[in-house]
From TrEMBL:
Residues 114-237 form the Phosphoribosyltransferase domain. It comes from Stylosanthes scabra. It is found in: Cytoplasm. CDD domains: PRTases_typeI (cd06223). This is adenine phosphoribosyltransferase. NCBIfam families: apt, PRK02304.1-3, PRK02304.1-5. Pathway: Purine metabolism; AMP biosynthesis via salvage pathway; AMP from adenine: step 1/1.
Length: 254
């Protein structure tokens, strides 16, 4: 099938420069727990958990009528003590893969068995009763978080892959990057019209990647109930590009 360039385009590269804290985000208060970088080179340690709000509070912008109950759930939830550990388990590596980029490294979260389990549990607790039929995981790091969530909530897992990786017939969605475009692909037949989809990735920056995933799912008639990420970089305003789809995140990069 043909590729198409979606209306959701990201205006900057996937590798993102981090803005100063002075650049106040115009986003709705969606945050849960800020990741802060220690003075040492790579490992971050959270200084003070000065701003913890519930992960369930943090996310859903309630544009999709079908997801309004998720927003309601969020607003009623108390702070969750699991968030500081999750946040502090994420390492920030400056200048990777290019100078100026603060890389949010979730591999250290995977080494912390409690924090990793808590991460999965938080998503499972949110989605287990939402009648989700498909969890769509975005390559590559959405492949880490998506499958355990899918298994736990009884949904199928569908990989959303980079070009020319899937062997069967695919549909493709191009999306803009700062210099050029990238493409995401999904197997034809993996998702059916009427499926209720959750899109999972580790991180939202400009939102271009999640936008492409949403478009692929909607092209086959699925209903995207929500997007979920471990980390949001709010300064990049990716949330605003999600065509009204709710976004749920656990922590935000500072
Ligand atoms: O919100 P965006 O600006 O679209 O960026 C977010 C995407 O960037 C990273 O993946 P990347 O494209 O680096 O691929 P990888 O996981 O295969 O390294 C990240 O895991 C998200 O998928
Ligand atoms: N700062 C960042 N860290 C990790 N993955 C990213 N993808 C886009 N920006 C990123």
């Amino acid at each position: 099938m043909q590729s198409s360039v979606g209306v959701c385009s990201s205006s900057s590269s996937n590798w993102l420069f981090r803005f100063s804290a002075a650049a106040a985000p115009l986003l709705p208060s969606s945050l849960t727990f800020p990741i802060s970088k220690s003075s040492s080179s790579s490992l971050i340690t959270l200084s003070t958990p000065s701003l913890i709000s519930s992960p369930l509070r943090s996310t859903a912008s309630a544009s999709a009528a079908d997801s309004s109950h998720l927003t309601e759930m969020a607003s009623n939830d108390a702070q969750d003590p699991r968030l500081p550990r999750i946040s502090s388990a994420i390492r920030v590596i400056p200048d990777f893969p290019k100078p100026g980029i603060m890389f949010q490294d979730i591999t250290t979260l995977l080494l912390d068995t409690k924090a990793f389990k808590d991460t999965i549990d938080l998503f499972v607790e949110r989605y287990r009763d939402q009648n989700i039929s498909v969890v769509a995981g975005v390559e590559a790091r959405g492949f880490i978080f998506g499958p355990p969530i899918a298994l736990a909530i009884g949904a199928k897992f569908v990989p959303m892959r980079k070009p020319n990786k899937l062997p069967g017939e695919v549909i493709s969605e191009e999306y803009s990057l700062e210099y050029g475009t990238d493409k995401m692909e999904m197997h034809v037949g993996a998702v059916q019209a009427g499926d209720r989809a959750l899109v999972i990735d580790d991180l939202i920056a400009t939102g271009g990647t999640l936008c492409a995933a949403i478009k692929l799912l909607e092209r086959v008639g699925a209903q995207v109930v929500e997007c979920a990420c471990v980390i949001e970089l709010p300064e990049l305003k990716g949330r605003e590009k999600l065509t009204g789809k709710p976004l749920f995140v656990l922590v935000k990069g500072a």
